Amino acid sequence: MAAGTGYSPSYVMVEDGFTNDIISGEEKSQNSEQLNELDIGKPPRHLSLVRHSMSTATLLTPTDPDFNFGIVDGKSEYMPMIRSGSCAEKGPKEYMEDEHICIDNLLQHLDRTEGFPSLGAFYGVFDGHGGTDAASYVRKNILKFIVEDPQFPGCLKKAIRNAYMKADQAFAENSSVDISSGTTALTTFIFGRKMVVANAGDCRAVLGKRGRAIELSNDHKPNSVTERHRIEKLGGVIYDGYLNGQLSVARALGDWHMKFPKGSGSGCPLSSEPELQEVLLMEEDEFVIMGCDGLWDVMSSQCAVTIARKELMIHNDPERCSKELVREALKRNTCDNLTVIVVCFSPDPPPWIEVQPQVGHRRSISSEGINFLKGVLDGNS
């Protein structure tokens, strides 16, 4: 990723050992007809059908009796209203190995209220390789491991970190799956105004903040500086960008043929331990884009935010927005499966970014406007 950029003072973030990066836009998206659906195939050795979530809006309004959990920030109390949409296509590949999950209302999904605020949501993108077993298993079980962890909900980050490790170990001990298959795992847990993003692999989560792209995860590529240092310190090697000459990611769940006998913890070059970021959502935080590397291989974070914001301003539909991002990635000739989730924090579309004139002949533009124009203008080059 590109070099990190500072955050505005109102943006409250607890980082977990790494910096955030912002990438400028590359190409301009065009509004067009609905994305043509492609058949999603599965590898022959894994014929079980897996449903992909296409979630719709589930909003809590101030008039709802359960709308009583908030965090006071200064003079006002803000609570996001969650709605999401997703799209998954196999793209140019023969088989679809991605999985994803969208849960806009955790209270309803888990049928429990103890320890939960009125607002809770969970999302995940799992980019499988070597078959679908690992991605399917993690999609079905990761939330269970989180909510059943003793640290939940008091220490949410610890519970999520533990859940990744437990899910990986449980997958290895499951005799009904192919433990040599693997998956990356990107999850977003929204708990009141708190949002925790956990990532192991090269999927990415990007926050749209008034037109500005703020990356909430690092791509765990073997050649990245931090991952290369970690891998080599633990005795691993990197050949032509591949961990031990086999895998193009430095962190993943599954792939147990590469983890024995050291296991999947921090002592293994191929680690299932996620990096986490915690964000306190503000009113200027508009949406989050979660996508597999099939999207980010052909599109920068800023470009994706610019496209998503433009689409939401037109139709205010996160599902159509996710389809447009997938369509644009296919247009740019991505070589991988595609999965995109767009999570909005308001029932309203993003506001227009206006150029504010100054006294005299000078003119100025807000930082949000600069980032928006940057994504559009760079896309024309």
Describe the fold and architecture:
By secondary structure, the chain is an alpha+beta fold. The protein has eight helices and 17 strands. A hairpin with a 2-residue loop joins strand 12 (238-239) and strand 13 (242-243). Residues 1-75 have low confidence and may be disordered.
Helix-strand layout with pairing:
Elements: E1 12-14, E2 71-73, E3 76-78, E4 83-89, E5 98-103, H1 106-110, E6 120-129, H2 133-147, H3 156-172, E7 182-183, E8 185-191, E9 194-200, E10 204-209, E11 212-215, H4 225-233, E12 238-239, E13 242-243, E14 253-254, E15 275-280, E16 285-291, H5 293-296, H6 301-315, H7 318-331, E17 338-344, H8 367-379
Helix pairs in contact: 2-3, 6-7, 6-8
Domain PPM-type phosphatase: 83-345
Family: Belongs to the PP2C family.
Keywords: Hydrolase, Magnesium, Manganese, Metal-binding, Protein phosphatase
Structural descriptors:
single chain, 17 strands, 22% strand, 24% helix, five-stranded antiparallel beta sheet, 381 residues, alpha+beta, eight-stranded antiparallel beta sheet, disordered N terminus
